């Protein structure tokens, strides 16, 4: 007798520690390692301050990772912070996080990274553009959907293609990320070695400030705002480390392997970032890096490599950027549908997102929903606007997860912890205070990005009201099952 065809699959624990480590690294290393040194240099006008911000951003991110890893190890499951917030706070705050991840944080990350891929491709093979009369059309004086239309179209095609890649199986997507990440990391270290040995750089490049630099005391308000603006750029480069938590339900021995993958992954990325950005600033005078920032279609890493390896080197780094952003887009697409799946199972997201493909065992419809919204965001704003918006929103919830370390030490006092936050309570407290400062200063210095982020967060309130009412009605006596 033939077996009936499955109508619903299930998530499978198939990833070990190394795979989870690689996914953490590939979720983080994307466009920021090549682009963000330029806006940071333009903001600070000093190479040593730029590198200081890379170190500071890495240490702060590590503080958050060391703290959040305790929560991840204790509550590991598919859905990441959504699952954590249900147990730490309440259903509403968990929903607010999940909705914000969908509308702002993770979807904007997908759009931003894929955009840099298409932007880099355009530098090699110019893409067709619409007439200037179309490109200048704006919606509300804020959005210019037809500007850079060829780049945006390729961005959407990449999102759709890689979404299909993740649709047909986690192992396939994880294998692709692993291969790409290893190639990228080896190539970056090759650039570092060549830059420091053959780049013709000097300490004078690193120690000489840019034209127009004015020394400020560390306590001056203008200087503090510049530091935070530079940190906002650096944090985009470090963004994505928490996404590994979304696939906790598919990691072997997650209570041990998930926190280890997070801490080891972020520590490794920090080493890579400090090394490569020191190389940029050592090889090229900071004024030339700032000039790259002022040119919309120039990437700082390409300018640096072209300086000492010529056009062949520029081609190499352009191809490396394509490979890096390709791999990071793939990994960034991979995790969040598991979050939407977890929400939908509880009636807190579009019902179709709770579907698991019977053959591929992936949340196929959640992957589709994410691809559609990410594609819409591609046409809504520029790269830097999207990244500033998502970092602002992300740090609201990073701080909330870290606060959860203190809450769970009380609520789940006797539950064994496979990992305890290093430096507790000082390290978690430092990270929470920094999150508060970053959020406040971003609202002052980047009000447009902060307000759009808050508006998208607030857009989930009608959906929450509708879904909670629908859930309550379905539980009433006499309701149809």
UniProtKB/TrEMBL annotation:
Alphabetized Gene3D superfamilies for the sequence: Amino acid/polyamine transporter I (1.20.1740.10)
Subcellular location, principal: membrane
Membrane topology term: Multi-pass membrane protein
Entry's transmembrane regions: 12-34, 54-76, 88-118, 149-168, 180-201, 221-238, 258-276, 314-335, 366-383, 389-410, 422-444, 450-467
Alphabetic keyword roster: Membrane, Transmembrane, Transmembrane helix
Xref: InterPro entries: AA/rel_permease1, AminoAcid_Transporter
Any one annotated GO CC term: membrane
Compartments reported by the entry: Membrane
Top-level taxon in the UniProt lineage: Bacteria
Keyword match Transmembrane: yes
Gene Ontology terms, MF aspect: L-amino acid transmembrane transporter activity
Protein known as: Basic amino acid/polyamine antiporter, APA family
Organism per entry: Chryseolinea serpens
Lineage: Bacteria, Pseudomonadati, Bacteroidota, Cytophagia, Cytophagales
């Amino acid at each position: 007798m033939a077996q009936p065809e499955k109508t619903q699959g299930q998530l499978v624990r198939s990833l070990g520690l190394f795979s989870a480590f690689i996914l953490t690294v590939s979720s983080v290393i994307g466009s920021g390692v090549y682009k963000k040194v330029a806006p940071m240099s333009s903001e600070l006008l000093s190479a040593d301050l730029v590198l200081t911000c890379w170190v500071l951003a890495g240490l702060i991110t590590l503080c958050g990772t060391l703290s959040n890893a305790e929560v991840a190890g204790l509550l590991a499951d598919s859905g990441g912070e959504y699952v954590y917030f249900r147990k730490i706070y309440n259903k509403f705050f968990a929903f607010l996080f999940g909705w914000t991840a969908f509308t702002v944080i993770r979807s904007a990350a997908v759009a931003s990274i894929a955009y840099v891929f298409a932007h880099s491709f355009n530098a090699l093979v110019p893409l067709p553009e619409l007439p200037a009369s179309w490109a200048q059309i704006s919606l509300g004086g804020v959005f210019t959907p037809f500007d850079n239309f060829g780049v945006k179209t390729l961005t959407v095609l990449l999102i759709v293609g890689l979404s299909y890649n993740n649709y047909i199986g986690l192992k396939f997507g994880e294998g692709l990320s692993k291969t790409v990440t290893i190639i990228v990391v080896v190539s970056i270290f090759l650039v570092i070695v060549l830059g420091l040995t053959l780049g013709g750089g000097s300490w004078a490049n690193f120690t000489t400030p840019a034209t127009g630099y004015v020394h400020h005391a560390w306590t001056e308000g203008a200087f503090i705002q510049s530091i935070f603006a530079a940190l906002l750029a650096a944090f985009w480069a470090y963004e994505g480390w928490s996404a590994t938590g979304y696939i906790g339900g598919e990691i072997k021995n997650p209570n041990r392997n998930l926190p280890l993958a997070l801490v080891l992954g972020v520590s490794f990325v920090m080493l890579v970032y400090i090394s490569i950005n020191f190389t940029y600033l050592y090889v090229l005078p900071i004024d030339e890096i700032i000039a790259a920032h002022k040119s919309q279609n120039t990437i700082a890493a390409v300018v640096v490599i072209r300086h000492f390896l010529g056009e062949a080197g520029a081609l190499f780094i352009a191809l490396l950027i394509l490979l890096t952003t390709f791999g990071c887009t793939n990994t960034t697409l991979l995790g969040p549908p598991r979050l939407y799946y977890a929400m939908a199972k509880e009636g807190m997201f579009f019902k179709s997102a709770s579907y698991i493909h019977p053959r591929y065992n992936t949340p196929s419809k959640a992957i589709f929903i994410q691809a559609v919204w990410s594609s819409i965001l591609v046409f809504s704003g520029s790269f830097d606007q999207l990244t500033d918006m998502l970092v602002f929103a992300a740090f609201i919830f990073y701080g909330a997860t870290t606060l959860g370390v203190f809450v769970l030490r009380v609520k789940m006092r006797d539950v064994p912890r496979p990992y305890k936050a290093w430096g507790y309570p000082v390290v978690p407290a430092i990270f929470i205070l920094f999150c508060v400062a970053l959020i406040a200063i971003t609202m002052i210095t980047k009000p447009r990005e902060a307000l759009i982020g808050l508006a998208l967060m607030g857009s989930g309130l009608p959906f929450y009201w509708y879904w909670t009412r629908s859930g309550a009605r379905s539980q009433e006596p006499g309701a149809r099952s």
